[in-house]
Hints:
Pfam families: F-box-like. The chain has 862 residues and is an alpha/beta fold.
Amino acid sequence: xxxxxxxxxxxxxxxxxxxxxxxxxxxxxxxxxxxxxxxxxxxxxxxxxxxxxxxxxxxxxxxxxxxxxxxxxxxxxxxxxxxxxxxxxxxxxxxxxxxxxxxxxxxxxxxxxxxxxxxxxxxxxxxxxxxxxxxxxxxxxxxxxxxxxxxxxxxxxxxxxxxxxxxxxxxxxxxxxxxxxxxxxxxxxxxxxxxxxxxxxxxxxxxxxxxxxxxxxxxxxxxxxxxxxxxxxxxxxxxxxxxxxxxxxxxxxxxxxxxxxxxxxxxxxxxxxxxxxxxxxxxxxxxxxxxxxxxxxxxxxxxxxxxxxxxxxxxxxxxxxxxxxxxxxxxxxxxxxxxxxxxxxxxxxxxxxxxxxxxxxxxxxxxxxxxxxxxxxxxxxxxxxxxxxxxxxxxxxxxxxxxxxxxxxxxxxxxxxxxxxxxxxxxxxxxxxxxxxxxxxxxxxxxxxxxxxxxxxxxxxxxxxxxxxxxxxxxxxxxxxxxxxxxxxxxxxxxxxxxxxxxxxxxxxxxxxxxxxxxxxxxxxxxxxxxxxxxxxxxxxxxxxxxxxxxxxxxxxxxxxxxxxxxxxxxxxxxxxxxxxxxxxxxxxxxxxxxxxxxxxxxxxxxxxxxxxxxxxxxxxxxxxxxxxxxxxxxxxxxxxxxxxxxxxxxxxxxxxxxxxxxxxxxxxxxxxxxxxxxxxxxxxxxxxxxxxxxxxxxxxxxxxxxxxxxxxxxxxxxxxxxxxxxxxxxxxxxxxxxxxxxxxxxxxxxxxxxxxxxxxxxxxxxxxxxxxxxxxxxxxxxxxxxxxxxxxxxxxxxxxxxxxxxxxxxxxxxxxxxxxxxxxxxxxxxxxxxxxxxxxxxxxxxxxxxxxxxxxxxxxx
Length: 862
């Protein structure tokens, strides 16, 4: 059984709604039942007598008085009370106090009649009781005769005989009676419920022939899903009646029962298929205070001649009789607040002027085409899956959010909603350009903040003038060719999928960032954004006219804007002087005149001129004194002399990263660059055809103050090697020479002073034959796909990863190389024809620090 501990006070407030009463979540065991049946008088014989005596002595020393125990135990549920009862006699007596056993639950509990009688005799003041199961009739008869203070009684899953209902009057304090899933009586005679104090009655999923209820104090009654042919009510104070799914009740019986309750406020007769308009008219005449009506799934209800002026909630789901003519009757319910018309298949239009309406639902109304609402208090509207809806007109002072997605036929929208802040019209494919007027200043939505028009594919020219709009989404509107936004507070804009946009104006907007890289047909752009810091125009290949006025802009990516001119670049740099990152990759129309405009950008730190036709970089060297990153990939018209100011004149003193990949620079220019530009930390020379050797063993431009042999030996032992203050300041950390087909030799000796070099990538250099690297701090070396590699010498005490995939180097060279790499963890020798998979153990023996070896026979050897 489930039990609910509580204090001695028993009142209406204490019990609350007994149908929803929360009993203890812990099912009691037999100890609880024994405690309830035996009580304080029984012998305390659990455990050894001497042990009990010791426990009693201990409790006495704790000086816990009966009053203190009572207060503590009032916080325990019945399961824990039962456990406490096993401590000592004092605790047993205290836990058995009747104050803790007011509400008992015997649902699905195998309890004998004798045990139940004993419990009732022990606790005569029980106020709440639950019983279910085959023996429920016998137990409840004992309860009715013994428990005179019973206030709430719940029965279920059994056969409740007539004698119970006759004896019910003996429970004079009973206020709540609930019977669930039971057979009442013998099934052939009338069941009578006659009680002077009963206030709440629930007979759900019960079977009976007839029911008569005579309860002068009854306030709520539910017969939901019960099976009966007739019901007679004599309940003058009844306020709530639920007849939902009483399929066998005829229309006349429902009419007679409901009209006999003049104080009725709430009526649920959903799924009573026999209910007619005549019954509703009689109810309207006799129940003047009716405010809640649920007539869902009543196919004969049309409401055309029904007048219910006090109604506040009306639910008419799946009522086949509801049509546009029914709206005239609904309009008489001037107090109406909630209206639900889901699945009304014959409804074609709704036109209502209801001053108090707050919530309306119209879902799956397949013929519904026109919605006209004038209700100042409307705060929620749900319109969904109405395939022929083409017109919406709403006037409301309270509506804040409007969501009407996937209305394919919607063409006309009129809104006068002074509080509306969010609108979602996604996938309304028939909406045209005129919808913009609805959301512009003066259009009826003065405080609109968020507007979603995703996948509205009929929009071609969008223009918004709004001082309130903050978020606008036009994702998937592929037909838009012209976009004009004058929204000074706009902070978020979504244009994904607007790939046919040709002209765009954002003057002014409050955006902090904007990505137009998904608009390949954009040719004309105008932006005035005082707060914008990032602008991406990548891929706008036909953009030829651009006015950009963003005084706080720090990042501009104009990659692949091949039509962008020098004049446009000049105007942009003048109006955006704070730019720090400028990407002009593949901007083939930019020339030396355009580069001269860089003098307007004193804070420029990142410049990408890759894939351009530039021949002179002098403006870059003259004006970009703070430049840290310079990318010149595939600038085929730049020669070695173009970089002379860099490695001869000391230009760009702050430069750290230089990318000359796929360039045509000669070997001597590359050598001098690497020798003289000691401030560089990252250099990329990928795919440089004119690079033949990387030999820092001679003429490397380094100081003669080289590390001693002792320094090298200590480095090989993993000791920290402090830099000599006299060493040259080469700070190169990352060198990429991927895919250099003509490079044959890489020699980096200790005297090259590459003490900061951490990452060296020489992969895909097919003609590379010799690698000799002595580098104290190198941790990553990639020689994969260097198919001609024969000589490998390494003295790299901090190397952790070595990749030799598809190299022609033999086992002896690899063994010698890794023997001096004392902390190497990862070795990749897959597809190396001269290295046998059987030699992996020997490699591990030579280099004990190895954790991962990749070989052709196994992807990973532990």
